[in-house]
Amino acid sequence: MTDLPDGIQRREFDGRTRLATRGEPVYGEPTDGEWRCWDAGRSKLGAMLESGMDIDLTGDEGVLYLGAASGTTVSHVADFAGPTYAVEFAPRPMGDLLDVAEARNNLFPLLKDARKPETYSHVVESDLDLLVQDVATRGQASVAVDNARFLADDSQLLLAIKARSEDVTADPETVFDSVCDELTEAYEIIDRQRLEPSHDDHLGVVARKR
């Protein structure tokens, strides 16, 4: 079971014990005082934590988050982490992400393409502790490998592999194995686990930079 830092707790919402972070609500999630429910059904990283994957969090990580969208998950990350760089390619959700960042002075939205890390290398600091990736694109392993440049040695990658983004016709397990094989160019895989029932045809991967 994942050891949770002080910034993440298990609290009761709607009669169930669920993950929570302390921060400003973002997507209408249930709250308990200053604590907000981290809905695993809307967050692949939340589902990875709920499933007890072998994730090591201290609560003060420097984070690069790829695929931030409108800020649902990255808002929870910024609630417990240190400086959090949120990369999102699509202009439409960027307005929501900017609103989320207004309440979090450690969250830095970047309208950039995660497949082109050289376009934000002048902004994102090096020697970060954590790379979180949730991007819907072919070549998910290449994205993770190319962005390893921002991580200190032995830092963590938390990756949600979307099988249908790689090949909608292929068996998901075949896709997962292929992506994991490519990841070994830069990472040692520590844990992998399917994210059903929260997220169909997704694999959660925990890895460390070599």
TrEMBL record:
Write down the Pfam families for this protein, in alphabetical order.
Answer: Fibrillarin
Q: Where is the signal peptide?
A: none
- Which GO BP annotation is one of this protein's? tRNA processing
Enzyme Commission code: 2.1.1.-
Keywords, A to Z?
A: Methyltransferase, RNA-binding, rRNA processing, Transferase, tRNA processing
Chain positions recorded as S-adenosyl-L-methionine binding sites: T72, T73, E88, F89, D113, A114, D134, V135, A136, T137
> Which EC class is the enzyme in?
transferase
Enumerate the InterPro entries for this protein. Answer: Fibrillarin, SAM-dependent_MTases_sf
* Entry-linked SMART domains: Fibrillarin (SM01206)
A Gene Ontology molecular function term of the record: rRNA methyltransferase activity
Coiled-coil segments: none
State the family named in the UniProt similarity comment for this chain. Answer: Belongs to the methyltransferase superfamily. Fibrillarin family.
Query: Any idea what job this protein has?
Result: Involved in pre-rRNA and tRNA processing. Utilizes the methyl donor S-adenosyl-L-methionine to catalyze the site-specific 2'-hydroxyl methylation of ribose moieties in rRNA and tRNA. Site specificity is provided by a guide RNA that base pairs with the substrate. Methylation occurs at a characteristic distance from the sequence involved in base pairing with the guide RNA.
What HAMAP family does the annotation carry? RNA_methyltransf_FlpA (MF_00351)
The record's section on PANTHER family has: FIBRILLARIN, RRNA 2-O-METHYLTRANSFERASE FIBRILLARIN
Oligomeric and partner information: Interacts with nop5. Component of box C/D small ribonucleoprotein (sRNP) particles that contain rpl7ae, FlpA and nop5, plus a guide RNA.
Indicate what this protein is called per its UniProt record: Fibrillarin-like rRNA/tRNA 2'-O-methyltransferase
The protein's organism comes out as Halonotius terrestris
Upper lineage? Archaea, Methanobacteriati, Methanobacteriota, Stenosarchaea group, Halobacteria
